[in-house]
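Hi P.,

Sorry for the delay on this. The queue was packed all week, but I finally got your sequence through. Input first:
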Amino acid sequence: MATYLSSNLRDIILNTHVPLVFPDFPIHWECFDDSLLDWCARYDKDASVSSLPAFESMSIADCDTPQWERKRKRVKMTLQKFLQDFTKEDQEPTEWAAYQYVRASEIPASCLTGIDFKSFGFAEHQNDYSLWLGSKCANTPCHYDTYGVNIVVQAYGSKSWLLFPPETPLQSSRIPYEESSVYCLENFYAPAPDKLSHYEQFQGQAYHCLLHPGDVLIVPRHWWHYVEAVETSLSVNYWVPLKTDLDLTLDELIVKHVVESFVKGSSLFSQFERALQDPSSESKRKLWDAEYLGQSEVFKLLSSVDVRVRALDVMPKEAYTQLLTNNAKRHGATKSSSEDNIISSTLEQLINSMCAPRCIATIKREFFRRLGQNQRLYR
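Then the structure:
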């Protein structure tokens, strides 16, 4: 029965067209049986003493732009020190801190006991998952992941997820550059009050959920998402690698070549050639084939599994407007003096124009057309 359940869940996760929430999912990972304080104490006790964890820290009042990673301070401290300094209930925080996107290989084994994604149908994850620990207001600017389907398990605390489908006309940006993420320029952390009308156009495509301990969220492929900690929280996520990701490897190498040629002046052509010759070498993991069943077929699968699940719906207009209005109030605070001029605005617009997903797709199509034509001419 367990195998049948996990097999159906796997098919649901690979094929759903909308985000799914499994409230209070029956998953029992031993490492999270005790409190967050106990988990952090165990981490500090068993972690390597040679180097303290490097947290990112940011002023809550810094809100003119999304809170990009390049603007954050790096602070080394123990996890218990983090809890002591950033989880004071008697006062509102002025900064947040986060130890996030930490690979399982960097975490003491005692803090990972029992973690396994086989209950979702993915036994061959090879510990290829990440942990995200952050205080209230810690956030990830709105972006979509270029690879995989995302399974998010909330272990402690609560997080707010604002999601948009792939076709939402957000302003894509590859600055900041990250190989597996496409950001947008919209600032959902603190939208400017005089620009709220721009954000209102996305209401009909906005989905929202608040994840509590024990909840699981499935983020379908290429869905935009803005994530913010409502309180000190810890979550675990696993990106399910898909066979279709292999095709996107070339897209990402083209983007990387463009960005680094402008910013660093380096060439990545040898990597591009290797990817052309053997794209399967880009991943040694088990790759899953998402057939993308019709959503009605996915709903039939949902009725066959003995767990609570709900598909997210578009946010009501009033709730979406209230979320934007509340976040826009952050502009009333004193702003920090963080500089955000990593490159000139003109160069940033040029890079973003050249690296827009539709432009990269056009370049790749034209490249393969010419490559095939050339092979026919000289065969």
